[in-house]
Sequence to fold (119 residues):
Amino acid sequence: MNEFQSAAINLYWCPTDRYVSLYLSPFLSRLLSSIERSAQHEAQRMEQKARGELERQKLQNEKESEEARRILLELQAVAAAVESSGQSKAEAQAQAERLLIEGKSAIERKKLSSINSMV
Fold:
């Protein structure tokens, strides 16, 4: 049995109210001190827990931010590759059209020169 329980039991055996008041005064003082210490300890525990949660959330946010940045860089690289291949394709197509036009022009020149040589 602890001191608080024994003091509570002795309360019922005290003969006068004055004696009860004098007897309980140190008990109440110790009880209030104990409650205050418990409350302070609980407040510190809750504050520490809140700080831990805040730190955990901060780390989670940083992780998500880095993941989003990684995805953005990958998409930028893909976009650059698509743009580059599109440009290469356009250049190749333009060169093919130029060669086709030059070929048709050469054929037309030959036709015209053969017609001119017959005349």
